[in-house]
Amino acid sequence: LNGVDLGVDAGDVVAVIGASGAGKSALLRAMLGLLPAAARVTGQMRLAGQDCELGAPSALAPLRGRTVALVPQDPAQSLPPHRRLGALLTESLKVHRPALPKVARQSEMAHLLRTVGLAESLQYRFPHTLSGGQGQRALLALALAGQPQLLLADEPTSALDPVAALGVLDALAEVASQGRAVLLVSHDLAACARVADRVVVLAG
């Protein structure tokens, strides 16, 4: 990647498209300081009025989850199979919002599930019992637990059937309508056309 310059306003969905290997996912991980140690990263990101050097992962670490959060693309790989969804959400709320009382955590967990279009009863389910679309929405709920201002969605519909994909896209649009900025990485032009306010193309 070289010369990437883009911005995402609050309430907007900006889609990043490009061929496989163009560096779409690498861009998101550079923004989070999650690239391998051998990777050379230079540049600057202004996030919620704060300037951050992309080559300094230690400076980006405090922002993860609370200011900027990642929605990965594979629930099967990202959700631990031995823990119920409710336990995962509770842990995320404890980590990112430790001042939240226990009763309020339960209420907030229900709110997060409703926000992404999941029934509250799914908090008792293990990840392997969720459908692909439900698993992807669960990842979105986990990313929202810290109330991030910027959401990075890494090809969230790549492994979903068309109906499930539309549900996830609509959930992302709902998140943006609540005033959050969404950066959506995708190779699906139809998905981008459905939800994106602007499109950025990475040349291969």
Structural notes for this entry:
- The protein is α/β, with parallel strands linked by helices.
- Helices cover 39% and strands 16% of the residues.
- It has helices at residues 24-32, 57-60, 75-78, 85-96, 102-115, 132-144, 162-177, 189-195, and strands at residues 13-18, 44-47, 50-53, 68-71, 150-154, 181-185, 198-202.
- The strands form two sheets. It has a five-stranded parallel β-sheet, with helices on both faces.
- Helix 7 links the parallel strand 5 and strand 6 (181-185).
- The model has no long low-confidence stretch (mean pLDDT 90).
Describe the structure concisely.
It contains 8 helices and 7 strands; from the N terminus they run E-H-E-E-H-E-H-H-H-H-E-H-E-H-E.
Characterize the overall form.
globular
Please, what is the average pLDDT?
Answer: 90
Low-confidence stretches: none
Number of beta-strand segments? 7
Strand order in the largest sheet: 4-5-6-1-7
Q: Describe the sheet with the most strands.
A: 5 strands, parallel
Helix content: 25-40%
Q: Helix- and strand-based class?
A: alpha/beta
End-to-end separation in angstroms reads 9 Å
Q: Helices and strands, in N-to-C order?
A: EHEEHEHHHHEHEHE
How many helical stretches? 8
**What's the gyration radius in Å?**
16 Å
Question: How much of the residues is beta strand, in percent?
Answer: 15-25%
List the quaternary state of the chains.
single chain
